[in-house]
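Here is the promised in-class demo. Please do not try to memorize the tokens; focus on the logic of going from shape to residues.
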């Protein structure tokens, strides 16, 4: 009886050890992402980090893509033979993992990447099994320049870009649900999205302003209420108007001074002209008096002798007309 109890206890302990070993092996297999028999591995947004360790060949595909459907059998055969060269083969569905298409900046389907210890290279060769196997077996990927640092999928900015791709995919699904399940017309869904965009933009703008004010708070001299700013504005306008009035008064005074300075020489010229005209008038009067007295002093002609047939001539006094003053 005692032996039987020991045997049962040993059996239970052995079962527990076997279960623990099986659990550890399954955990290691799940962590590595490998599937038994070299089958094709499916990666998504949750386990895509597995490709950062080891050597991988990754295909991005979509179920509706005709070229992807043609490549599918070849890719599965390549996954079975690639285990001999210790290369893991996986595929990613961009319709269920849109963030990965943004993270890897996938613009065409199918797109194939070779990943070796965190270095990403895009495969652009032939898409048949022999060419793919030759590419990894002869390490032809070494002749391809890896992606630059700002294009690497594991960087922060590419992670942000992946969230935008995921958001666009979510909005697309939501738009489809509005039209299919709720019967909302196309223009109605577009109008709803436009209103939501306006409100979200306003909220983000307000949040940004608050963040800037928090990081760079304004000085005390810059903190003014609306009424204070209006009062300061009114005072500034009044000061400006006063300055303009003063400027106008100064300009008028300058004009008056200029006018006075211009009138003074004109008055002097008028006085000189009046004096000249008076002098000329006096000269004219004197000349007229002389002209009046000259005819009285005309000498009488002497009588001629008889026999002279020449007519008597008398000299006529020529009166000189006075010249008018200029």
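The designed amino acids, position by position:
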């Amino acid at each position: 009886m005692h032996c039987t109890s020991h045997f049962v206890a040993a059996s239970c302990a052995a079962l527990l050890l076997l279960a623990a070993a099986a659990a550890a092996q399954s955990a290691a297999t799940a962590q590595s992402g490998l599937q038994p028999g070299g089958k094709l591995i499916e990666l998504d947004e949750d386990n895509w980090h597995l490709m950062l360790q080891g050597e991988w060949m990754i295909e991005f595909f979509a179920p509706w893509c005709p070229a992807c459907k043609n490549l599918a059998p070849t890719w599965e055969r390549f996954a079975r033979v690639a285990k001999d060269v210790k290369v893991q083969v996986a595929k990613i569905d961009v319709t269920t993992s849109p963030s990965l298409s943004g993270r890897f900046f996938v613009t065409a389907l199918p797109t194939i990447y070779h990943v070796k210890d965190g270095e990403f290279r895009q495969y652009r060769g032939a898409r048949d099994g022999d060419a793919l196997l030759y590419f990894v077996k002869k390490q032809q990927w070494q002749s391809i320049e890896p992606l630059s640092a700002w294009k690497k999928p594991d960087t922060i900015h590419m992670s942000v870009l992946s969230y935008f791709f995921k958001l666009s995919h979510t909005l697309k699904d939501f738009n489809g649900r509005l039209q299919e399940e709720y019967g909302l017309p196309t223009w109605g869904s577009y109008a709803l999205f436009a209103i939501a965009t306006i409100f979200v933009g306003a909220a983000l703008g307000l949040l940004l302003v608050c963040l800037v004010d928090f990081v760079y708070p304004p000085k005390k001299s810059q903190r003014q209420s609306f009424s204070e700013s209006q009062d300061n504005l009114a005072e500034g306008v009044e000061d400006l108007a006063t300055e303009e009035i003063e400027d106008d008064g100064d300009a008028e005074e300058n004009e008056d001074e200029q006018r006075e300075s211009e009138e003074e020489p004109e008055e002097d010229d008028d006085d000189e002209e009046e004096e000249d005209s008076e002098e000329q008038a006096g000269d004219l009067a004197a000349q007229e008096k002389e002209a009046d007295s000259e005819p009285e002093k005309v000498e009488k002609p002497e009588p001629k002798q008889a026999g002279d047939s020449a007519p008597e001539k008398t000299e006529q006094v020529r009166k000189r007309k006075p010249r008018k003053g200029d």
